[in-house]
Amino acid sequence: MATKHEATATVAEIEDPTFFEQEHDIEMEEQETDELLEEKEQLDEEGAEAPTPAKRPSKLLFWIGVNIIATTSIVFINKSIFDDPAFRSAQVSFATFHFLVTFATLHTVSSSKFAFFERKRAALRDILPLAAAMCLNVILPNLSLAYSSITFYQTARVLLTPITAFLNYVLYRKTIPRQAVCALLPVCAGVAMVTYFDVRPGATTKETSFYGVVFALSGVLMSGIYTCWIGHYHQKLQMSSLQLLHNQSLLGGVLLIYLIPFVDTLPVFSEVSLHRWIMIMLSGLCACLLNLSQFAIIAGAGPVASTVVGHSKTVTIVTLGWIWSGSVISGYSILGVVVAIGGVILYSTATMYKK
């Protein structure tokens, strides 16, 4: 898990407004990007110096390619790992691994040698609730991925948009344009269609179970709460997204270490194949690349390009998920995915038009 965040198998990453979930792991990437965009817009409004856009288009294109490949790869790598029953029962251990990888990555790039961002410490009592929410935000989507098809997992993550909009209104009275509200209706309808035709008796896709649906919905709800809290903690602690994630990832990893003996059934490590260890290492590498590439895209391309990249990742993962399943896909499931993704694109367009 890296510990922004799309799948997630979730990783801690910088939030992406359209990927919705990965990951932490995948999911954590998704949940940090919107905050980075808001920070950049605020700097522009105040006349402060915003992150300098990349002067070399080739460099920006390189990071966009890295981000799309890493985001897509981590979903399928984690799905492959969770298909092994020995690791399906070690979700907390896997999340701990991603959190610590994320912390090591951010700690390295914030050193004086790289200076991607300035480190800032937060008091334990201040950051503890957010770190606990981050743990659930990663573990629940990972459980969803373990008990669902990749297509259902990724499509369900699209619900993060309406859930976050609803929670922001209930908790903070934040509103969105009427056009954006209307765009959220097809999002919910599309996900409902995919859910029904993926789990109904006689469905051609057998990978999604009832538990997968429960974990997916509870994971989206937890991700929505975590996303709303991120904005609140930005103001409360006066920290950037990277500074928050740097503090959360270490504390989250330490919290989960104490839970491992009580909730995980660890595999016999001597019996784990070399191939499986390579997959785990690749998952951690993808988490590192997600953190670095997402920041580079936000700083160099801006919100519109970042949104387009997010939509591209969603479509890519859903399409490859169908190929991965190897089963006949219901036409209604395809229609549901198209309706849900179309609603997200309309929502993004409406919110960006308002800005």
Automatic annotation (TrEMBL):
<feature type="transmembrane region" description="Helical">
    <location>
        <begin position="274"/>
        <end position="292"/>
    </location>
</feature>
<feature type="transmembrane region" description="Helical">
    <location>
        <begin position="250"/>
        <end position="268"/>
    </location>
</feature>
<comment type="function">
    <text>Involved in the import of GDP-mannose from the cytoplasm into the Golgi lumen.</text>
</comment>
<feature type="transmembrane region" description="Helical">
    <location>
        <begin position="90"/>
        <end position="110"/>
    </location>
</feature>
<keyword id="KW-0812">Transmembrane</keyword>
<keyword id="KW-0472">Membrane</keyword>
<feature type="transmembrane region" description="Helical">
    <location>
        <begin position="122"/>
        <end position="140"/>
    </location>
</feature>
<dbReference type="Pfam" id="PF03151">
    <property type="entry name" value="TPT"/>
</dbReference>
<dbReference type="GO" id="GO:0005789">
    <property type="term" value="C:endoplasmic reticulum membrane"/>
</dbReference>
<dbReference type="InterPro" id="IPR004853">
    <property type="entry name" value="Sugar_P_trans_dom"/>
</dbReference>
<feature type="transmembrane region" description="Helical">
    <location>
        <begin position="152"/>
        <end position="172"/>
    </location>
</feature>
<comment type="subunit">
    <text>Homooligomer.</text>
</comment>
<keyword id="KW-1133">Transmembrane helix</keyword>
<feature type="transmembrane region" description="Helical">
    <location>
        <begin position="209"/>
        <end position="229"/>
    </location>
</feature>
<feature type="domain" description="Sugar phosphate transporter">
    <location>
        <begin position="62"/>
        <end position="348"/>
    </location>
</feature>
<protein>
    <recommendedName>
        <fullName>Sugar phosphate transporter domain-containing protein</fullName>
    </recommendedName>
</protein>
<feature type="transmembrane region" description="Helical">
    <location>
        <begin position="330"/>
        <end position="350"/>
    </location>
</feature>
<comment type="similarity">
    <text>Belongs to the TPT transporter family. SLC35D subfamily.</text>
</comment>
<dbReference type="InterPro" id="IPR037185">
    <property type="entry name" value="EmrE-like"/>
</dbReference>
<feature type="transmembrane region" description="Helical">
    <location>
        <begin position="60"/>
        <end position="78"/>
    </location>
</feature>
<dbReference type="InterPro" id="IPR050186">
    <property type="entry name" value="TPT_transporter"/>
</dbReference>
